[in-house]
Amino acid sequence: MKLEKILIENFRGIEHMELDFQDELGRLQNVVPIVGPNTSGKTTILDAIHLCLGPGTELFSEREDLAMTPSSLVRRGSIRAHVECTVRFSDEEIEKTKAIFRQIDDPDADHVPTLNQLKVSWDYPDPTEKHARGKNVYDPPHPHAYLLFKGRKRAIRNVHVPGVGARSLQQLGGVFMFDQKRTGLGLRKRKIDEGIHYTQDPRDILLDLATRAKAKQASETTQQDDYENFSALWTKVCDPHRIKDLINTETGLDMEFEGPQGTYLYDGLSSGQVMLLMLLVQFARYRIHRSIVLIDELELHLHPLWQTRLFVHLEDLGVDNQVFFTTHSTHLREALRGTFFHCTGNLGDESVKKVER
């Protein structure tokens, strides 16, 4: 799935905003930077997308620092916040969603619609007072339009079913938000509430991925490919540093890295390397493909050169993802010249207009 356009009204500090993510030929932008200083509303745009589209996937909980209260989400002086997102689904995604429903004998298997474009609206507070997180409406008013968002959840729940498997996640999208702690995806609170231990320690995730990648691969797994892609991308950004190999130490398994000064273990990583690692390992862990991905402050703890490298390789994070990211880095802003981005405010000079292409 990909986002075509969004309308935001009376949401947090935004009174009215309309953004279109198509180019002059109607092609959707795969990477959408949102540039501006602190408090200019960058994260608000990501939150609007997440709150409007995320709940429909059933893989959602609000980010940890977001208070779900009218005083926090509704613009002062207004009664209700309103967001509309127009989403596109490819023929391949629709057919894969239908196939998943059939393979797991879901009673809704014959109800998944063929709709390449769908408008989702979100109102908060819910005027009917039935939904604590706000009310979602799907347009056109197909009675089963919401099923287009359920394929990934159904596949995750039934990954053991023959014909489903982990590879199916390469064709089923979701909505994922990475907050500034990079422990996001809205999964931590939900997993704790369900009584499931789900580590957010990047070292543990890295070691688990590496161990699984080196094990004999079942025919339906993508763990080895995901790990190799993640490792190659980390190296491209952090060059001349690279991930070397698993190593058995006196205290247990660790990961060995290599750089200009020689080899070092996980504890020798810089803060920038750790933040990048926290981002990338979750793409491999959750097999994020064909999804809408929201990243708050892409440049966190990264040297300007590494900021540029990460931006250049964003489309390599997964298969056919659409990535929205915020930044207040003047270096990244300059690197964006000639590409589409939305600007929420001045970064300290007069060269940035409201919207640049």
What would your notes on this structure say?
By secondary structure, the protein is an alpha/beta fold. Helices cover 29% and strands 23% of the residues. Strands 7-11-12-3-13-14 form a six-stranded mixed beta sheet. It is globular, with a radius of gyration of 21 Å. 38% of the residues are buried.
Largest beta sheet: strand ordering: 7-11-12-3-13-14
Gyration radius, to the nearest Å?
21 Å
Biggest β-sheet, characterized?
A: 6 strands, mixed
Which overall shape is indicated by the principal axes computed on the Cα atoms?
globular
Taken together, the total number of domains comes to 1
Order of helices and strands: EEEHHEHEEHEHHHEEEHEHEHEE
- Strand-residue proportion: 15-25%
Number of helices: 10
CATH architecture label name: 3-Layer(aba) Sandwich
The first-level CATH class is given as Alpha Beta
Produce the secondary structure layout.
Elements: E1 2-11, E2 14-20, E3 31-35, H1 42-53, H2 70-73, E4 81-88, H3 91-103, E5 117-124, E6 135-139, H4 151-157, E7 175-178, H5 188-193, H6 202-214, H7 223-238, E8 242-249, E9 252-259, E10 262-265, H8 271-286, E11 292-295, H9 304-312, E12 322-327, H10 330-335, E13 341-343, E14 355-356
Parallel strand pairs: 3-12, 3-13, 7-11, 11-12
Antiparallel strand pairs: 1-2, 1-4, 4-5, 5-6, 8-9, 9-10, 13-14
Helix pairs in contact: 3-4, 6-7, 6-8, 7-8
Keywords:
single chain, 357 residues, alpha/beta, Rossmann fold, 6-stranded mixed beta sheet, 5-stranded antiparallel beta sheet, 10 helices, 14 strands, globular, disordered C terminus
